Amino acid sequence: MKKAIILFISFLTLGFTTVEDTSTIYSFLGKWKSFEGEIINVKFNENNEVYFNRSYDGDIISEGIIAVENEYLVVSRIDSVLDYKLKYAFSKDAQTLVVMKPNSNQAWLLNRISW
């Protein structure tokens, strides 16, 4: 019964999400690799939020929840008290992602390695 209620609420939530917002969120899902060797895994968590973790050599460096507002990723970290907005851009084939680093003029250049 509890699963049926959660499924019903999920369908209602998706019904109120515009197609543009849904495709933007889904564009981030998957596993990404930076040129520095970091791995970023983006997926839905048990609360249907977009969860990410960033790791290097198997150690988690950061993790949190992301949302998309206009042309920004809104990041709420769960491993610290930091929250910030990051500008991003996809390549035309959505296999490359550039994300500005917080409080910096530098960016991460990420390549999708799996969905």
What keywords describe this structure?
eight-stranded antiparallel barrel, alpha+beta, Lipocalin, globular
What do these coordinates show?
The radius of gyration is 15 Å and the shape is globular. The protein has one domain (2-114): Lipocalin, CATH 2.40.128.50. Residues 1-22 have low confidence and may be disordered. 21% of the residues lie in helices and 49% in strands. The protein has helices spanning 2-15, 19-28; strands at 30-34, 39-44, 50-56, 59-69, 72-77, 83-90, 96-100, 107-114. 10% of the residues are buried. It has an eight-stranded antiparallel barrel with strand order 1-2-3-4-5-6-7-8. It has 115 residues and is an alpha+beta fold. It contains two helices and eight strands, in the order ααββββββββ.
Structure summary:
By secondary structure, this protein is α+β, with helices and mostly antiparallel strands.
**Strand sequence of the main sheet, in spatial order?**
1-2-3-4-5-6-7-8
CATH topology: Lipocalin
Q: What is the CATH class?
A: Mainly Beta
User: Major sheet, described briefly?
Assistant: 8 strands, antiparallel, barrel
Shape: globular
Give the CATH architecture.
Beta Barrel
Query: What count of domains describes the coordinates?
Result: 1
CA-CA gap between termini:
31 Å
Sequence stretches where pLDDT stays below 50 over 5 or more residues:
1-22
| Helix fraction bin | 10-25%
- Overall average residue pLDDT: 83
Number of helices: 2
Counted beta strands: 8
Structural class: alpha+beta
Rg of Cα set: 15 Å
Strand content: over 45%
The helix/strand order is: HHEEEEEEEE
